[in-house]
Specification:
By secondary structure, this protein is α+β, with helices and mostly antiparallel strands. It is built from three helices and six strands. A hairpin with an 8-residue loop joins strand 2 and strand 3 (32-37).
Length: 142
Amino acid sequence: MIIYEPEEDSDVNEFPWTVTFEPSGGDDWDSFICGPYERDHAVALAEAVALEDEEGGVLAIVKPMLPALSSEDVAATIEELREAALEEDEADEDETVNGTPVDFDDDELVEEEPEFAEAPSPEEIREGMARQYRRLLDLDAE
């Protein structure tokens, strides 16, 4: 599972969230995206599917949906992400231990305990989706 973890007080936590399910390992099937969900529902659903898959062939990726309303918004976001990635790459190049560069290996990923004991019920998901759509459409503002 890959879960985007924003800061607790980040506005991103209020955005709608999606879960992308895709094959992992030797499986061969088309990936698909589910949502929008509230963050906790997205994480719980992803955990329930990916962690309980006995074959280990499901990767769940939980990410927020950014509220871009124009191509200019999307282009600006891409530019910000490119700049952040460049800064991160430069910082990684600077990391050394006793003068030797540190090589971070994805094989050393830490297994985490599930955040949620069970997936939300269909009713809870519907209620969460309704809240997300109201936020997206700003129906509560009037």
